[in-house]
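Retry 2 of 3 after timeout on previous attempt. Resubmitting structure tokens to design endpoint.
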């Protein structure tokens, strides 16, 4: 397992990180086995969040006995110092640890700073002085806020969506983080499952020595695939580059990244998958979505009130209601055998 220094934190970590959103979805004993297998094969960085239901608790169960040999990153979207303090205490308890290596603001709508009326950054400074957290990070889906955070000099790490279909402006954050010695975690490296060429995804990000992808895994087979890439890193050759260009041609533009910030929907439309379902049907087993349940889900789009809340919350500026309507039409066309 290749290792690297995580920016100005000085922490030595594996270049393959483990994204712990998916482990919520599998039986408890399976998540324990998966996390322990990852550690035994050299994965030392684990990223989670207070909002990921049982994720932190599962990490604590599986890895508390090797706490001094791993790096734990978690995050909070709390909007008050009181909420932030509560989340820190919850994270410490659930992960069975006395300290959190990197505590991140979870996609805030602004870049918190010291002395702010919100009190958020000062709250983390206090927690750091108490030894409860060691480094302060931030996550964002906005390239402008991400850039502002890097240039502020206030943060040790940035977490941002990066993949082989990222724009040049987004990829410019990689050099910016390097210039400022800021640790960089790449989330959504497979665009929430839309990118199915894991070899290409791995090869593309591996060319950047300061980027640590946090691969979301819920199966041993997925872990084994990334471990095999670590054992023999694939080269970004002409064949992989051609595959990347094909995906970019299909996906670049207005598509849903499944970040979930559009939720909740007032009429219970499952927006993150409904807004990209035709892409999913072309890239995953169709039977997973061509079901009576998903037919009902897609019909919920007819109940859209046009409130605009999903559109206002989308960090990518998508016209979500219009996107849902297009995806609904495409879905039922596919269902009817039109494609």
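Retry 2 succeeded. Sequence:
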């Amino acid at each position: 397992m290749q290792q690297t220094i995580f920016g100005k934190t000085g922490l030595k970590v594996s270049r393959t990180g483990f994204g712990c959103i998916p482990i919520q979805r599998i039986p408890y004993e399976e998540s324990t086995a998966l996390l322990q297998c990852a550690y035994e094969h050299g994965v030392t960085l684990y990223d989670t969040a207070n909002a990921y239901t049982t994720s932190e608790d599962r990490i604590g169960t599986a890895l508390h006995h090797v706490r001094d040999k791993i790096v734990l990153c978690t995050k909070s979207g709390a909007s008050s110092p009181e909420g932030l303090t509560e989340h820190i205490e919850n994270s410490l308890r659930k992960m069975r640890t006395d300290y959190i290596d990197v505590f991140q603001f979870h996609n805030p709508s602004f870049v918190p700073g010291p002395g702010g009326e919100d009190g958020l950054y000062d709250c983390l400074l206090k927690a750091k002085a108490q030894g409860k957290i060691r480094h302060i990070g931030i996550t964002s889906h906005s390239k402008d806020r991400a850039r502002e955070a890097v240039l502020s000099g206030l943060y040790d790490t940035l977490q941002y969506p990066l993949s082989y279909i990222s724009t040049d402006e987004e990829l410019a954050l990689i050099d910016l983080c390097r210039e400022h010695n800021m640790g960089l975690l790449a989330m959504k490296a497979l665009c929430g499952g839309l990118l199915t060429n894991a070899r290409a995804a791995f090869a593309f990000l591996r060319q950047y020595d300061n980027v640590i992808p946090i691969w979301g895994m819920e199966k041993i087979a997925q872990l084994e695939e990334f471990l095999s890439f670590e054992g023999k890193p694939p080269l970004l050759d002409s064949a992989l580059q051609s595959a990347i260009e094909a995906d970019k041609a299909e996906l670049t533009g207005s598509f849903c990244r499944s970040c979930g910030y559009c939720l909740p929907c007032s009429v219970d439309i499952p927006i993150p998958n409904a807004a990209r379902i035709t892409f999913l049907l072309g890239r995953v087993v169709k039977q997973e979505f061509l079901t009576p349940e998903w037919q009902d889900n897609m019909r919920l789009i007819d109940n859209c009130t046009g409130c605009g809340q999903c559109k206002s919350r989308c960090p990518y500026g998508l016209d979500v209601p219009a996107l849902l309507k297009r995806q609904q039409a495409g879905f039922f066309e596919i269902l009817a055998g039109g494609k």
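Attempt log closed. The chain is about 40% helix and 15% strand.
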